[in-house]
């Protein structure tokens, strides 16, 4: 992609799944990458294996952790040009059984954490005055409802509204803001959820719900992250790009 070589990229939730694939893609594009995850050992392993500039453990729902993360990233990278705001959690839970504690925890990571990281990075981008690109992790669940994911659906709908509002306010500072909306992607998190639904669940879901007939790959979402962060997407702003194999086209 044009314009990624030498860019300073911070990736939250970058030590597994889509985030790890994104880190690998940006390193391959010649960017300098700093990443975070909740497990310090896992972060260190991914940083070493990919040759990233650095990484740290971080709970994105905690303001103190987020400030420490962004400061560490700036120190390692000399500033931040691109934020891949990727950290998130998910689990199945019927609407009638969701506890206030579970609701609050999911929102704390998926929406509060998205806001905290984006705000901390945006403030520094504005202060530098050189613009930048931010890509938030949303989901097809932010565009349509899915049973047993009321809290997750609501959090991702919130991410889309956050993205649009950030785009309205930050565009004048030369900061492009967009969101990615993956459908069913093969990740460790989704594998863990699918394991509770039976060994045939993934194959049946792909056959019945995804016109391309398969689940997506983390690397395919990483490619969209790279596109939206690159100069190829220089006039793409305030958008949500769906990566779902046609899933939302099914009636």
Brief descriptors of the model:
single chain, 251 residues, alpha/beta, Rossmann fold, 7-stranded parallel β-sheet
Secondary-structure element pattern, one letter each: EHEHEHEHEHEEHHEHE
How confident overall, as mean pLDDT? 97
Shape: globular
CATH-defined superfamily: NAD(P)-binding Rossmann-like Domain
| CATH fold field value | Rossmann fold
What proportion strand?
15-25%
The strands making up the biggest β-sheet line up spatially as 3-2-1-4-5-6-9
How many domains? The number is: 1
Q: What is the level 1 CATH name?
A: Alpha Beta
**Largest β-sheet summary:** 7 strands, parallel
Q: What helical percentage do the residues reach?
A: 40-55%
Q: How many β-strands, per DSSP?
A: 9
Terminal CA distance: 35 Å
CATH architecture call: 3-Layer(aba) Sandwich
Q: What are the low-pLDDT stretches, counting only 5+ consecutive residues below 50? A: none
What's the assembly state of these chains? single chain
Protein topology:
Layout: E1 8-12, H1 17-28, E2 32-37, H2 40-50, E3 54-57, H3 63-77, E4 82-85, H4 100-128, E5 132-137, H5 150-170, E6 175-182, E7 185-186, H6 188-195, H7 201-209, E8 216-217, H8 218-229, E9 240-243
Parallel strand pairs: 1-2, 1-4, 2-3, 4-5, 5-6, 6-9, 7-8
Helix pairs in contact: 1-8, 3-4, 4-5
